[in-house]
Amino acid sequence: MAIRLHQLRALVAVADHGSVIGASRALFVSQPAVTKAIRELETDLGITLLGRSVSGVTLTPSGESLLQRARLIVGELERAEQQMATERGALEGKVTVGVSPLAALTLLPHAYARFRQHMPEVNVEFLEQSASRLVEGLRQGSLDFALAASYEGVSDASIETTEMLTIPIAFAVRKNGKLASATSLADLCDAEWIHSDTTNAYPHFIDTLFSEHGLPVPRRITRCTSQSLLYSLAISIDTVMLWTSHTLELVNTTGQFHQLDFIDISKHVKLQLMLREGAILTRPAEFFIRCIENTNEIFSLPLK
């Protein structure tokens, strides 16, 4: 039994596009060719990989299991082809970077500007995703690397992390709102607390913070992963917002927010560079990471 590369490409394409028709278009081959590749793969393995219904094509549990390896193999082959093109002197290539909002507000813009000066023809794709999806993308090889914020360290053994920045968190309210007069946590028990953390770390932190002071935990703790909506809510309604201290300085240039200094904060946000263990990076991806590392020194200093 030998699994062939075109079979794995077909499996990945069907999973990505949800149908044989979509896969055939993506691979520039006929529909029968895709169907044949999948059926031969199922026959060789002795396992059903796809389930078919009126709503489309879905992967069986065995298909999902194989898909993880297939993505990694197909992705690594594409990177090998890109690397060989670079060795031949070609300036093209592709780098896919997973990001979280904090990366966009700190290291990434300056690092990207430096990267573009030296590699103007390389195709770059930025994907903003939750922490769990970033880890999955790294595992499957769909991301070259990720630059992401984390309230808690990544514990996945297959992911290597390097801490780039550690930034304190800050709480703020509208300067002219009714919450601006608060002087203690007791004044905020009935307030709405809004955050952008995709994990449960922030709600747990708030629960612990109020419980340690013998106060009832706020009933309204709202998650908002859209940074644009988060800012709009912050200036539109009376709510307690969680920011990083760096982000608060950036959005508070006109002084519309009031920081709640009486809240004792011990937590920090870590901005981490994340790589799949044993990943072999292309030359453009390696250079992009060097640009991020070189830019890190700028943001390790306090804002003026």
UniProtKB/TrEMBL annotation:
PROSITE patterns according to UniProt: HTH_LYSR
Top-level taxon of origin: Bacteria
Any single GO CC term annotated in Swiss-Prot or TrEMBL for this entry: cytosol
Pfam families: HTH_1, LysR_substrate
Keywords: DNA-binding, Transcription, Transcription regulation
GO molecular function: DNA binding; DNA-binding transcription factor activity
SUPFAM superfamilies, per the entry: Periplasmic binding protein-like II, Winged helix' DNA-binding domain
Domain HTH lysR-type, chain residue ranges per copy: 3-60
InterPro entries xrefs: HTH-type_LysR_regulators, LysR_HTH_N, LysR_subst-bd, WH-like_DNA-bd_sf, WH_DNA-bd_sf
Family of the protein in this entry: Belongs to the LysR transcriptional regulatory family.
Protein name: Transcriptional regulator, LysR family
